[in-house]
Amino acid sequence: MRIPLYALSGAVVFSGAFLLFAIQPMAGKQLLPLFGGASSVWATSLLFFTTALFIGYLYVYGLAKLPERTQPLVHAGLIGLALLFTAASAISVQDVSVSFPWGERFPALGVLAALAVSIGIPYVLLASTGPLVQYWHGSLSGKAPYSLYALSNAASLLALLAYPFLIEPVIALRYQRGAWIALFAVYALLAAASAYVFFSRAVSGSLERPLPEPASREEFFRRVLWVALASLPAFMLVATTTQITQVIAPVPLLWVVPLVLYLLTFIIAFSGRGRSIFTPLLFLASALAAWRFTPAAHADLALQILSYLGVLFFCGLACHALLYRMRPAVPSLPLFYLLLSLGGALGALAASILPPLLFADYWEFPLGLALSGALSIWLLPDAFFPRILDARRIFIAKIVLMLLAASLFARLVLADQGAIAVASRNFYGNAKVVFDENFISLKHGTTLHGTQFADAAAARLPTTYYTPGSGVGRAVLFEQGARGAKGVRVGIIGLGAGSLAAYCRPGLPAAAQEGDAYVFYEIDARIERIARSYFSYLSHCEGSEARIGDGRLILEAERERGALGAYDVLAVDAFSDDTIPVHLLTLQAFELYAAHLRSPESILAVHISNRYLDLGPVVFRLAAELGFNAALVADSGESTPGGTPSNWVVLSKDAGVFHSTAFVNAGSFPPAPAERPWTDDYSSLFPALDIPKPWE
């Protein structure tokens, strides 16, 4: 039975696009634990995906230059190479990334290298599928193949929606890889069949190669415009995703939503819709709405996210509708898709790698808003301007309004200076040291990560989330009382300003076998420099040290060497801004923490203060799984100068810990444990989300 040409082409395009986008959140999730759960992991991954897409399109462009008989043979060789590569690598990035020692020093390069070595060749093959099959189909049928482009985007959309809602909650990560490889083998058979059909027609001589469009100065500028119109939506995609995940959590759910909207604009635009004269007006309105909520108050988070997603959607729709209107004939399709992918790669590069090098804060999204506002003004039809204005005055009005949009970005940057003495940004986020009359403060994003009294007489006092009434403060005081003159060993995942070292006791009695030891695990070497340069907590504690690297990975390495920490208190406090490194809150992570505790009455303290996530049920479920007793300590911070509200979950194998004087009047009503424990293979953000409602 002969398969219709369109059915075969559609099956290849659909399966290739589905696998192309299914692997993105899967690979990103595998990478998160290796780089501290930083939101920059996904931004850098998007750069890899867009660059690999460009390479795939470049391959198609070069392939189209070859004789028709040669094209399917070369492509069949790439299919075979990709199958061998996939079988050898098993689509696992964990083992790959550790072989790049410079990945710790340059984590962005580590992410790119891990992705390239683990999924590079299969990804390039999948990326080439859409434009190549469309080109072949157009050559065979003589018809414009843009419906296949819409089908490709629909498959991509389906994959992205399926991952957080169907795949991730049901299938363990290790089984996801196996299923992907099996489906990739099916796709390879379909792709080989498509190549065979094209080869057969080429051999029979029934193909006609239409002449490409002649090059001209006008055509050159049109191609430049293709790149520019593709780059802005890609820039906004990465910037919007970074903006959202920096506030809540870098997890597949929050990666997928912006990417879904981005793809949806392709589907709408390349199906011939989205060309309404109201599209630029909606684009401008969405940019103004997003500007209204930059930055936003805590209660406006839902409106903030919706406005950000709105401007991303209308930016993509406006730009992609213009690209569809400027689409070329079939002979120029490979070049068209190549330049679109180049624009996407340049936009992703400008929003992922360059901002940490150029900006001290997260300014790429406001910059994207300014560019979006300027473009939307330029695209406004003359019908939206007063009739008394002629074409020249409308042109001048647009220029003035575009300059105003650019000035809003400058205003935001200047207004952000304030009292900041030190501001820096790298792969792990931005850090600010702020001086005022009473305190020196460290902020990560918009979240306070420690303060110290400016007055030297009060500089040794613990402040913020670490006061004696906090969960971790009570834990340290309990262990000091239990061990008496013996030194207390405290491990802390997350350094901040080093505030917990304020509990370090100098000058223990000579009979003490060891002094207090405070070991900080910090992934960002810059934070140690800040803590030692602008705060004195560490210098006041002779037994303090900072171990640079991801806390969980270092603890695992220490366990493998038999160098367990024997900690009396182990505090997990490695949250940046309000985001959470999910890999620090899994069952396997808590088993590791338990192994590093000294005795049954040792304490594991988990900091769960968060404006948008209720992590209490998650931690209580993990405690129940491992046989820990747990108590929620919610402290207002009002009883201690410099204190701030905090929520800690304190865990211990010995229930007697919570009946001690250190924990008198400390317990709060415990939450119901989560239905399912988080593991390295499973985590779901839905039950933990606690976003303020706009109407509340």
UniProtKB/TrEMBL annotation:
Alphabetic keyword roster: Membrane, Polyamine biosynthesis, Transmembrane, Transmembrane helix
Keyword Transcription regulation: no
Endpoints of the signal sequence: none
GO biological process, one term: polyamine biosynthetic process
Membrane-spanning ranges: 5-27, 39-61, 73-94, 106-126, 146-167, 179-199, 220-241, 247-270, 277-293, 305-323, 335-359, 365-383, 395-414
Highest taxon of the lineage: Bacteria
Record protein name field: Ferrichrome ABC transporter permease
Originating species: Candidatus Kaiserbacteria bacterium RIFCSPHIGHO2_02_FULL_59_21
Organism lineage: Bacteria, Candidatus Kaiseribacteriota
